[in-house]
């Protein structure tokens, strides 16, 4: 039976405007093409790559040392030098850990810089020497400087210049050149009898773990990613076995090899596991590596160098190509880092602390 109500319903169910729309498949294809092109352009600035898509980390440019050689302009002095660090950066974090372990908080000052996600630079917390950003500070040290402006920076307040911007060098300097003012002057993170073993660990860990997580996260081809990921977890598995019988990488004494590994391990479950696709296994899932991380974290002064919120903000909030939405995760809960390391059988009473 027909009724006015049926006619009204039928007429209202028919769109008045039959505007044409692009097919969803076409929209998706165009969107992917545009985003892929922009992504590669942004990644080329963020993470230089080779022909196979592997991330290639540029070398540091300032490699001067502080020592007591008569002809060296950079002599050890308390209060003369400052560290510029970003709290989210693992390379800068190394210097804070070494500074804390040696007890140099009153000897080497620290200035915190923060990432400016829109400009893609590190910004100073407040103006210093007429500079508001790290690139300006680099240009003050070397007028016309065109390279990367990275942290950490070891700055000479006497001559207003950069001494060194390579974290591997800076932690060696902190370990050896300020002992007369250090709280722990006899604690040697780079002892002569262990240097060869430390250097071997550093070489392997740098390529496959410290830089390995970035090679995973910044890989621009599937092949490059899988290669980096396999190497990363092969090394983590190897370290897991070593830590079965050793408290630290080189035995009972913490060394620079442990300092360099710690800052990557601390960020692993927070950032690298998800954002950088290093998701085969969490550090918390490793019995020995997990306990080792807790052991290092609980050493005096070390936890104070770790800023979970800033790390998440720096990675998730500022690495736009990896996280376009800028959404920062609520987790993980790291309260477990205060749990007992459960490595009592490896802890000796003669540990330096």
Automatic annotation (TrEMBL):
UniProt keyword Transferase present: yes
Protein name, per record: Glutathione S-transferase domain protein
Entry-linked InterPro entries: Glutathione-S-Trfase_C-like (IPR010987), Glutathione-S-Trfase_C_sf (IPR036282), Glutathione_S-Trfase (IPR040079), Glutathione_S-Trfase_N (IPR004045), GST_Omega-like_C (IPR047047), GST_Omega/GSH (IPR016639), Thioredoxin-like_sf (IPR036249)
Keywords: Transferase
Single annotated GO MF: glutathione transferase activity
Keyword Transferase: yes
SUPFAM superfamilies for the chain: GST C-terminal domain-like (SSF47616), Thioredoxin-like (SSF52833)
Sequence segments annotated as region (Disordered): 1-23
Polar residues bias: start-end ranges: 1-16
Cellular component aspect of the GO annotation: cytoplasm
Positions bound to glutathione: 122, 148-151, 166-167
Active-site residues, as the UniProt record annotates them: 89 (nucleophile), 214 (proton donor/acceptor)
Site (Lowers pKa of active site Cys): 272, 315
Domain of life the protein comes from: Bacteria
Annotated ranges, domain GST C-terminal: 191-315
PANTHER family recorded: GLUTATHIONE S-TRANSFERASE OMEGA-LIKE 1-RELATED (PTHR32419:SF6), GLUTATHIONYL-HYDROQUINONE REDUCTASE (PTHR32419)
Pfam families named in the record: GST_C_2, GST_N_2
């Amino acid at each position: 039976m027909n009724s006015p109500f049926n006619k009204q319903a039928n007429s209202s169910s028919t769109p008045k405007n039959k505007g044409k729309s692009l097919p969803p498949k076409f929209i998706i294809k165009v969107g992917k093409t545009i985003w892929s092109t922009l992504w590669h352009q942004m990644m080329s600035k963020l993470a230089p790559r080779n022909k196979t898509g592997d991330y290639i980390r540029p070398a540091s440019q300032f490699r001067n040392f502080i020592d007591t050689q008569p002809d060296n302009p950079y002599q050890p002095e308390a209060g003369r030098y400052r560290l510029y660090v970003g709290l989210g950066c693992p390379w800068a974090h190394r210097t804070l850990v070494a500074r804390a372990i040696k007890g140099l908080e009153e000897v080497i000052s620290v200035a915190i810089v923060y990432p400016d996600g829109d400009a893609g630079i590190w910004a100073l917390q407040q103006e210093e020497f007429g500079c508001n950003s790290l690139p300006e500070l680099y240009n003050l040290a070397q007028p016309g400087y065109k390279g990367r402006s990275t942290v950490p920076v070891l700055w000479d307040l006497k001559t207003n210049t950069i001494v060194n911007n390579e974290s591997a060098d800076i932690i060696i300097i902190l370990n050896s050149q300020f002992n007369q003012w250090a709280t722990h002057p006899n604690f040697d993170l780079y002892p002569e009898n262990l240097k060869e073993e430390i250097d071997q660990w550093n070489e392997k860990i740098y390529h496959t773990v410290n830089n390995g997580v970035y090679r995973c996260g910044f890989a621009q081809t599937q092949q490059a990613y899988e290669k980096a990921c396999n190497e990363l977890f092969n090394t983590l598995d190897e370290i897991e076995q070593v830590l079965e019988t050793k408290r630290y990488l080189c035995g009972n004494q913490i060394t620079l090899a442990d300092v360099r590994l710690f800052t990557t391990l601390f960020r692993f479950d927070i950032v690298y596991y998800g954002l950088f696709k290093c998701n085969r296994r969490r550090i918390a899932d490793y019995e020995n590596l997990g306990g080792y991380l807790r052991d290092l974290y609980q050493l005096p002064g070390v936890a104070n160098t770790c800023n979970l919120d800033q790390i998440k903000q720096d990675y998730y909030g500022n690495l736009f190509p990896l996280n376009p939405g800028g959404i920062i995760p609520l987790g993980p809960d790291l309260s477990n880092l205060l749990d007992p390391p459960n490595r009592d059988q490896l802890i000796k009473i003669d540990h330096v602390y």
